[in-house]
From TrEMBL, chains A, B:
It comes from Blautia ammoniilytica. The keyword NAD does not apply. The keyword Hydrolase applies. Residues 60-423 form the Amidohydrolase-related domain. InterPro entries: Amidohydro-rel, Metal-dep_hydrolase_composite, Metal_Hydrolase, Metallo-dep_hydrolases. Pfam families: Amidohydro_1. Its cofactor is Zn(2+). Keywords: Hydrolase, Metal-binding, Zinc. This is Amidohydrolase family protein. PANTHER family: GUANINE DEAMINASE. Gene3D superfamilies: Metal-dependent hydrolases, Urease, subunit C, domain 1.
Length: 433, 433
């Protein structure tokens, strides 16, 4: 039993709630079977003798949750960024995703992606694969080995896509999805879980959404998709779904938009209407706010601060490769930055995101989609990222909150020296320090 | 003579003009006494036998020019970013700058700054120090040793600043400036040059600006300052200078705004009026566009694309510590990103900056403030940055322009493996590669 108990020593930073960060300097976090037993100034008597992993003077934050990214697009991140969403899909995303029909290519590309994700500050993620079942299984196998907790979706798309990247019709798409769910259940993964992934309304026929809804109810799967990202896309959805009251209503019509038995995460929500916002709140839909992607694809700036302050579920996503950076620390900084520009240029009544708010989004905000995760409070699953800021020297000593703020803006992968998921160390780079 | 001639081999990327990037794959760039002799597919017969520094398959770009940054603020970059300009100056910038009254602190802090600048993609920079003459000389001594080409300014400020960071009056400020110019001339620097640095209109009395104009004319110094950054600041300048037609006119009134004998660089120009823009164009004033700072301090987004396309001089600046990143590659990416948001949110008639345009700004655009620099064409001073992108693996081979685009978005300091200024290697990190 004691084998599964250990303590992490260091300076802990985590969210109490969306307005307050807690700092515990050089304290002990007890991990019992992957679950936090809380933080203590001194090692309690009942835990004397357990292993202490000593990161004195390092900062330790909860593992960050990336609520939205496209694994196959990692190969072209940071390139071809001069187009808007629909042109970018046709020019960059679709041709690249088509390559994953080849398992060799998928293996090579996903190997690079999963290794980098493992070394990033992310511990959990909602991931789009491609429509290819084999390639999706390759990705899931590789992710399982990283120790990261992920939800991965074989993508569904049966209309309005190039012939080289489209399923023949609704039933073949649904059949492939059932085959994929079968394959997943045969693998008995510990870390990697399927999530239903209709690409977005323009790519999915009504017939397909009906079949996916049946699959969702049969297997109790969560759902991920895109929502109200770009004006051109929204206009297109209106044409495609003349009977829908708004974009989100087109998902809701097929029972793929939250409610009790369908945990749902929707990426973007840059232009959600009042009705859409109200429905997301009512039905507990998660919003994956992707500030870098919304900038790179000239989509705009989502009112993420409003969503958070009005009590909607909102987390952050890198949206690789609409976003080019895999770092969720950068996503925090980006979210704050664009919220300032939105305040200045769009709506001075919506104050910019504060650091505690953006940090909350990246931890508990998105983490609750995975259960009790994103915090160090007692009872939470213990995901942790150990940050070494010695590459950022200062002529004077800095308080922990200032050090955290600096790392959010300035860190690169070299600052991440160890990572825990459910109490397991999945990555350590502490040898030469 | 041959000792001063060598060739760089690699894949060169540089601007032909503001609309076109030139790529020369695995070619030879000849450097003769610090000046480019042009790029050749093969080593010309007349250069056979010269040293070839072989960076085959690496990307080589011109050294980047940072037109605006505050060296003393490097210590707190990435922190305290929740305020607008004027509050931020009082809360973060001024208290920190006051510490440079202590030479020991200045030495420690500037040592960190200059070492990081040396390892960044920057080869030339226009730098604000503080009002302290001694600390400014410490900074200049350290910069001289890096081999970087810099213009450094002792800051002038004699009003509207806290007593702990203000010169007594105009004459003491001017006298300290003359004393500083004397000290600089005694050092016989090869790389480091003085630039007159009235902080901004709110900090400088009319009397001071008259004295600085006399000094400018006597010593033929260039000038750097701030212009039209933030609505609150601009409103204040209107109150302080009721007779000025616009902010820039307040500098021009004292002959500190371009024209033939007063090379001038003004940071920001987020809210320049038509009259101000026309005067900057007419008098050849350089604009240092600082996209990250303008975002962090909620200032807004400057119409940099307009300035460039209308033929004004415009370069990029990191504006440490309004900006938190010292990387001019990131400044290129930031400039493109904010120009997209400006297109979407402010003015759909002004198309976003293209990659060639932003790259041009960071090289020739700002480089011409230093003379013939920022390009590899024959006759240019040879500043070069060698980039190794092997830390960004790809499952397929990528063309050089795509590799450059990726590095602009994704590079960190580990991707910079060698740097040349005027043909001298000032930094090399190629041992273990």
């Amino acid at each position: 039993m004691l084998n599964n108990i250990f303590a992490l020593k260091g300076t802990f930073c985590y969210s109490k709630d969306s307005q307050n960060l807690i700092i515990r300097e050089n304290a002990y976090l007890i991990c019992n079977n992957g679950i936090s037993e809380g933080i203590y100034e001194e090692l309690p008597a009942c835990f004397q003798g357990i292993q202490v992993i000593d990161h004195t003077n390092k900062l330790i934050i909860p593992g960050l949750i990336d609520l939205h990214l496209h694994a196959p697009q990692y190969t072209f991140r940071g390139t071809g960024m001069d187009l808007e969403l629909l042109d970018w899909l046709n020019t960059s995303a679709f041709p690249e995703e088509a390559r994953y029909a080849e398992s060799d290519y998928a293996q090579k590309a996903y190997q690079i992606f999963t290794e980098d994700l493992k070394q990033s500050p992310t511990t959990r993620a909602c991931i789009f694969a491609t429509l290819h079942t084999d390639a999706t299984m390759i990705l899931m196998d590789l992710l399982e080995d990283t120790g990261l907790k992920t939800m991965v979706g074989k993508v569904n798309m049966d209309r309005n896509a190039p012939s080289y990247l489209m399923e023949q019709n609704a039933s073949t798409s649904a059949a492939a999805t059932r085959q994929w769910i079968d394959a997943v259940s045969g693998r008995h993964y510990q870390n990697t879980f399927p999530i239903l992934t209709p690409r977005f309304i323009p790519s999915c026929s009504d017939e397909l959404l009906i079949l996916l809804s049946e699959i969702q109810q049969e297997f109790h799967l969560p759902v991920q998709s895109h929502l109200s990202e770009n004006p051109g896309e929204i206009h297109w959805v209106k044409e495609l779904c003349p009977d829908s009251l708004f974009y989100g209503d087109a998902y809701d019509h097929f029972n793929l938009f939250g409610r009790d038995h369908c945990p749902t995460v929707m990426a973007h929500c840059v232009y959600s209407t009042e009705e859409e916002i109200a429905l997301m709140k009512k039905q507990g839909v998660y919003i994956a706010h992707c500030p870098q992607s919304n900038t790179n694809l000239s989509s705009g700036i989502a009112p993420a601060a409003r969503y958070l302050r009005e009590g909607l579920h909102v987390g952050l996503g890198t949206d690789i490769a609409g976003g080019f950076s895999l770092s969720m620390l950068r996503a925090i900084a980006d979210a704050i930055q664009v919220s300032k520009l939105r305040w200045r240029l769009v709506d001075p009544s919506l104050k910019a995101l504060t650091l505690p708010e953006a940090f909350y989004m990246a931890t508990i905000g998105g983490g609750s989609f995975f259960g009790k995760t994103g915090s160090f409070e007692k009872g939470y699953e213990l995901d942790a990222v150990v940050l070494d800021d010695s590459s950022l020297p200062s002529p004077r000593s800095l308080p922990p909150l200032t050090r955290l703020e600096r790392l959010i803006s300035l860190s690169d992968s070299s600052n991440i020296i160890q990572k825990f998921v459910c109490g397991n160390s999945i990555f350590s780079n502490t040898e030469d320090r």
